[in-house]
Design goal:
This protein has seven helices and 37 strands. It is an alpha+beta fold and 610 residues long.
């Protein structure tokens, strides 16, 4: 028993000695066991590579420092929380959450005319990507505008990085380049950029003469065209002739719906010979203008002798369009002897010619009726005389100025014929304009207001204009209509009328408060209500159909003026048509609903009768 215990103690002692020997021995690198003081830096073979340790961590690397494997941040890596030079909002948003810079690209026309709408549009890139969700405002000659990226303010699509809004070039805005400032803010970054808007209020105008060389005493025939951005316009053209920088004559012409104009200038025999310059100047209703020039060569007449012409008596005072201009002249040769049987004419600025008759030896007289379509102000007339005395032709001319007064034409209020209306009524205003001669006034500029608010008058015939006003304001006691117009020659006219508003028509309740109206009638008895409603709907349906006819007539008139007559500019045509279209659709929808309602009611009445 004692020997067994001894063996056990001996075995335990040997085991302890072996363990102690192994514990005190130095670790061996390469034995496949990471033991003792071994680590990735001291023994990569047993403990693994320090650099490989971090291969699964983005933007992190590991290296040995002081025999320890430590973490370091990788450079030029998206995700290291450093917005480095090689990175920006486009490349790495985790490191660069705000743009470094904005790139502003204006997207508008090269230039604009007065009266044109400017679709102020700018593309904004945050670094190199579209700036979605930015706050953008613009300021300039138009004031201040908020810019939108919603697809509803002139940009094609929402959230495309293109911001836009619109304003109109007014007639008083100066021509030239104007700075537009854009302020952009996004994700904490703000900047301002400046772009230039060019206002060039120029028309397209040309002037041509029938030839280049003339003799004094001849007539220069002139023609040309005027347009706005290539589209013909109707406007006045002032024609001035110059010799040696001195103005010799003035004439006025009016372009037609094709933009074409023509006039003539008489060269008096007493005018200087040499190089002449002829100026044509046009200006439209928006204050866009242009001046063009042409040059002619004027020579003295061959084999001619001058006739002396004098007004007898001299003309005094001013003259009215539609009135008579009586001219009497004495014709004499260079020896002051009366010239008999001469061919004498009065030449008006518009090219009209009136032959003067010989009332006594050497004295000629005639009466010229000044047309209503005639320019006002200082107008240049001319007396032209010729006498054939073989072998020499004698001739002469006398230019003189006649002041033409601005006058009015006749404006007749055709509709309305009554002076009292009820709330809910449609009031038709129809105006007819004529010259005292009975000729209709065309090519006019018309302005009208109802209770101080501008309304648009539609042309419905030569010299006729109309508009319809719905009396829908319960506070109205009267309706004041004012109208004024001017033609292309400076003639003006105006008209005003005051109408009384008293009472309320059934149409008002039917149009404005159909539900309430029907409810009140229902309280009086279902059958009575159905009958009254049917009548009201029939009455309203007639009004709506009349309204539809009027709107279709207006639409047809607009299309005729644009497609056939060419008296409307494309922008005006689109504006007028887009205004009528929703009204016509709304009225047509109401008619269909009303007809459907009446049809149902007829079926109900039919069953009751059975």
């Amino acid at each position: 028993m004692k020997s067994n215990k001894g063996l056990i103690l001996l075995a335990t002692a040997l085991a302890f000695l072996i363990f102690a020997q192994n514990s005190l021995a130095a670790p061996i690198c390469g034995n496949g066991v990471c033991e003792g003081s071994e680590n990735m830096c001291s023994c990569a073979a047993d403990c693994g590579d320090c650099e490989a340790y971090g291969s699964d961590f983005r933007c992190k690397t590991f290296t040995c420092e002081d025999n320890k494997c430590v973490e370091i941040v990788a450079l030029d890596c998206c995700g290291n929380n450093l917005c480095e030079d090689s990175e920006d909002f486009t490349i790495c948003r985790p490191d660069c959450p705000t743009p470094k810079e904005f790139i502003l690209t204006p997207l508008w026309e090269d230039y604009y005319l007065r009266g044109e709408a400017v679709n102020l549009k700018i593309q904004i890139d945050a670094d190199s990507v579209r700036a979605i969700g930015a706050d953008v405002t613009s300021s300039g000659i138009f004031g201040e505008l908020e810019m939108y990226d919603d697809g509803n303010h002139g940009d094609e699509e929402a959230s495309d990085g293109i911001f836009s809004n619109s304003f109109t070039i007014t007639r008083d805005m100066n021509e030239g380049t104007h700075p537009i400032t854009f302020n952009v803010g996004m994700l904490g970054t703000e900047t301002a950029g400046i772009a230039e808007l060019d206002i060039t209020p120029r028309l397209d105008l040309e002037i041509n003469s029938d030839r280049m060389n003339y003799f004094l005493g001849e007539t220069v025939k002139l023609d040309g065209k005027v347009a706005r951005r290539g589209s013909p316009i109707i406007t006045g053209i002032e024609i001035r002739t110059y010799s040696n920088e001195k103005m010799i004559s003035y004439a006025y012409a009016e372009s037609n719906f094709k933009g074409e104009y023509a006039t003539a200038v008489r060269l008096a025999t007493i005018d200087p010979a040499g190089e002449w310059f002829i100026s044509a100047k046009a200006r439209d209703e928006f204050n866009n203008w242009q001046e063009s020039w042409t040059q002619i060569n004027v020579e003295k007449p061959l084999l001619s002798n001058f006739l002396r012409i004098s007004l007898n008596p001299e003309l005094t005072g001013s003259f009215r369009r539609g009135g008579e201009l009586k001219v009497t002249v004495d014709i004499a040769d260079t020896n002051s002897d009366p010239v008999l049987s001469a061919n004498v004419e009065l030449v008006a600025p518009n090219g009209d010619r009136k032959k003067l008759g010989e009332i006594r030896p050497g004295t000629y007289s005639g009466i010229y009726t000044i047309p209503w379509k005639f320019g006002s102000g200082q107008q240049r007339f001319e007396i032209v005389a010729k006498k054939q005395a073989q072998p020499i032709q004698m001739e002469g001319s006398l230019p003189f100025i006649v002041p033409i007064e601005e006058t009015g034409f006749i404006t007749e209020l055709i509709e309305p014929k009554q002076s009292t209306f009820m709330l809910g009524d449609d009031i038709e205003f129809r105006i007819k304009m004529n010259y005292p001669s009975g000729e209709a006034v065309t090519e006019s500029i018309v302005n009208a207001t109802i209770n101080g608010t501008s309304v648009e008058m539609q042309a419905v015939g030569e010299g006729e204009y109309r508009t319809v006003y719905f009396v829908g304001d319960r506070s109205l006691k009267k309706v004041e209509f004012a109208f004024n117009a001017s033609d292309a020659y400076g003639n003006v006219s105006d008209k005003s009328v005051e109408l009384e508003v008293s009472g309320v028509s059934l149409n008002y309740y039917a149009m404005r408060f159909p539900s309430l109206f029907y409810a009140i009638l229902f309280a009086g008895g279902l059958l009575a209500v159905l009958i009254v409603i049917s009548k009201l709907e029939t009455y309203t349906l007639e009004n709506l159909k009349r309204k539809e006819i009027e709107l279709r007539a207006e639409k047809k008139d607009i299309e005729t003026r644009y497609f056939k007559l060419g008296t409307l500019e494309p922008e005006t045509f689109e504006k007028m048509r887009s205004k009528i279209k929703p009204q016509l659709e709304e009225v047509r929808e109401k008619i269909l609903k009303m007809e459907e309602s009446l049809e149902k009611r007829k079926k109900v009445f039919g069953r009751n009768k059975k």
